[in-house]
Design brief:
This protein folds into two domains: 214 residues, 2-Layer Sandwich (Gyrase A, domain 2), CATH 3.30.1360.200; 173 residues, Up-down Bundle (Multidrug efflux transporter AcrB transmembrane fold), CATH 1.20.1640. It is elongated. The chain is an alpha+beta fold. Helices cover 58% and strands 15% of the residues. The longest helix is centred in the last third of the chain and has 54 residues. It has a four-stranded antiparallel β-sheet. Strands 5-4-8-9 form a four-stranded antiparallel β-sheet. Helix 1 packs antiparallel against helix 12, helix 9 packs across helix 12 and helix 11 runs antiparallel to helix 12.
C-alpha cells in the first residue's frame, strides 16, 4: 500500500513538472501543435504563453529619484499627498505604454522622496517630462451640444467606428479652489461617499455651476483624464458637496486621494538622480545569471552523485523538479525577476540540496547499523526532519524580516528565497522520499555499495 502511495506521488509530481516545463518554455510544444494542426487539421489550441516579468536591471530602463516639495502642505496631510502624487505619476507612466512601473514613496525625517523605476523604456527624457508636470485637477461643465455629442458617441460605440468627442469643456473651477476631499459614510445607507470642501471663491463658482447645470453631470479631470462625472442633483451653496455612487470604501478612498493630489501643490521638478540601464546590459546580466545557475547546478549534481551515489542521483532529479516548479511559480504569480531575486533563487538551490545531505547522512548511519533499506530510509527522514525544519524556519523568519523592512531589491531577494525555502521542503520531504521508497525494494535495493 505504501509503495503504491509513493508511486502515485512520484507520477503526480513528474506530470506536474512536465506541464510546468511546457509553461516555462511553450515554444516547442506549440510548434508540435502547429505541426499536428497543419497535417491532421485538428484545431488544437496553443499552450498559454506568458512571459517572465523582468526587473529594471534585466530588461533595461531608467530609475529616477525625485524630491517632493511639501513645504505648503500640512504635516498631517503629507502622507496622503504623496500617495495621491504616486497615483497620478503611475497613470502618467502607464499612458506611455510602459509595463509594470515601480513607484515607491520613501521618507527620511521630514524629507520625502519618490523613486520611480521604469523597465523597458526607450525614451527617458519623455518620461522625465511627463513625470515632472504638477498634477492638474479641473472640473469640466457640459458643452452646449452635450446631448448631441453623447448620442453621436453612442453610435460610435455601437458601430465601433469613428472618434469619440469630449462632451465636456473646461470651467472656471479648478483644483486651486478645492480645500480638501474626504471619505464620509451616509448616515442612512452607510454607503461611502466623497465629501468636497471648496474655499470661498471656489464655493461661489461651484454654486453658479450647480445652478446652471442641475440634472447634468459635472466631470472631474486629472491630467486631462476623467476620473468621475457625478450628476448635479440641485443647486449647492456653501462650498460643500458630495460625490455618491456605488463606491466601495477603497474606491472612495482612491477617488478622494486623487482629488487631493490634483488640488495640492506637490512640485517635484527635475530628478535628483537618474540611472539608466541599457537593454544590452540587461541581456548580458540574464546570460551570466543563467550560466551561473547552470554551473552551480552541475557542480552540486556531480558532488551529490560522487558522495552519495544512487541517493545522490535521486536528489539531483528532485532538485531538477524543484528548479522547474520554482521557475513556473515565478512566471505564474508573477515574481518580478531582478539580479537580487535570481541571487536569492540560486541560494535557495543550495539550501534545497542541504536537506538531502542531512537525510542521506542519517540514512548512512542507519545502514551501517545493519537495518533494512526501507526502514533505514524512513528512519533517516524521521531523524533529519527536526534539523531540516529548524534551519528552514529560521531562514524563513529572516526572509520575512528582509521583505518587511527592506528596499525593493532586497524584497526581490527575500521573495525568491522564501518561495525557494517552502518549495525545497516539499521537494526534499515528499519528492526525494517518494523516489527513494520506490527503489527501496527490488534489484537496486540489493546492490549495497550504491546506497
Amino acid at each position: 500500500m505504501a509503495k503504491k502511495y509513493f508511486k502515485f506521488i512520484s507520477i503526480a509530481v513528474i506530470l506536474l513538472s512536465i506541464i510546468t516545463a511546457i509553461f516555462i518554455e511553450p515554444k516547442f510544444f506549440n510548434q508540435g501543435v502547429d505541426f499536428l494542426n497543419n497535417n491532421l487539421h485538428l484545431g488544437l489550441p496553443h499552450f498559454w504563453n506568458k512571459p517572465f516579468q523582468l526587473g529594471l536591471d534585466l530588461e533595461g530602463g531608467v530609475e529616477l529619484l525625485y524630491g517632493a516639495d511639501l513645504s505648503q502642505i500640512k504635516p498631517e496631510d503629507r502622507d496622503q499627498a504623496m500617495q495621491g502624487l504616486r497615483d497620478v505619476i503611475d497613470r502618467r507612466i502607464n499612458a506611455l505604454g510602459v509595463r509594470e512601473p515601480e513607484i515607491e514613496v520613501t521618507q527620511s525625517g521630514s524629507n520625502y522622496r519618490l523613486k520611480v523605476r521604469i523597465p523597458g523604456i526607450t525614451d527617458p527624457a519623455q518620461a522625465i517630462k511627463e513625470i515632472g508636470r504638477t498634477p492638474y485637477l479641473e472640473f469640466q461643465e457640459p458643452r452646449a451640444d452635450f446631448d448631441a455629442i453623447q448620442a453621436e458617441n453612442q453610435k460610435i460605440l455601437d458601430s465601433k467606428q469613428g472618434t469619440f468627442q469630449n462632451p465636456f469643456q473646461p470651467s472656471a473651477l479648478t483644483g486651486r479652489y478645492l480645500k480638501e476631499a474626504v471619505v464620509v459614510f451616509d448616515q442612512n445607507t452607510m454607503e461611502p461617499t466623497v465629501s468636497l470642501q471648496f474655499d470661498d471663491e471656489g464655493a461661489k463658482i461651484f454654486e453658479q455651476l450647480t445652478e446652471k447645470f442641475t440634472g447634468k453631470p459635472l466631470a472631474i479631470f486629472i491630467d486631462n483624464q476623467m476620473i468621475s462625472a457625478p450628476v448635479i442633483r440641485e443647486k449647492i451653496s456653501g462650498g460643500k458637496a458630495q460625490i455618491s455612487g456605488n463606491f466601495t470604501a477603497d474606491e472612495a478612498k482612491t477617488l478622494a486621494r486623487n482629488l487631493n493630489a490634483g488640488a495640492l501643490p506637490v512640485p517635484i521638478g527635475q530628478p535628483i538622480s537618474q540611472v539608466s540601464v541599457g537593454p544590452t546590459l540587461g541581456t548580458l546580466s540574464i546570460q551570466k545569471s543563467i550560466m551561473a545557475g547552470l554551473i552551480g547546478f552541475i557542480v552540486i549534481a556531480v558532488f551529490m552523485i560522487a558522495i552519495y551515489r544512487f541517493p545522490g542521483l535521486i536528489s539531483v532529479i528532485s532538485l531538477l523538479i524543484y528548479v522547474i516548479l520554482m521557475l513556473g511559480l515565478f512566471k505564474l504569480i508573477p515574481v518580478t525577476m531582478t539580479l537580487a531575486g535570481i541571487g536569492g533563487f540560486i541560494l535557495s538551490v543550495g539550501m534545497a540540496i542541504d536537506a538531502n545531505v542531512l537525510i542521506f547522512a542519517r540514512l548512512r548511519e542507519e545502514l551501517k547499523e545493519g537495518k533494512e533499506l526501507e526502514f533505514a530510509i524512513e528512519e533517516g527522514f524521521r531523524r533529519a526532519w527536526p534539523s531540516i525544519r529548524d534551519s528552514n524556519v529560521t531562514t524563513l523568519i529572516i526572509g520575512v524580516i528582509l521583505f518587511t523592512v527592506g528596499t525593493t531589491f532586497v524584497k526581490g531577494f527575500a521573495t525568491t528565497l522564501n518561495l525557494g525555502i517552502i518549495i525545497s521542503m516539499f521537494s526534499a520531504i515528499y519528492v526525494t522520499r517518494a523516489l527513494l521508497m520506490i527503489f527501496s525494494k527490488g534489484r537496486l535495493s540489493k546492490i549495497k555499495w550504491i546506497w
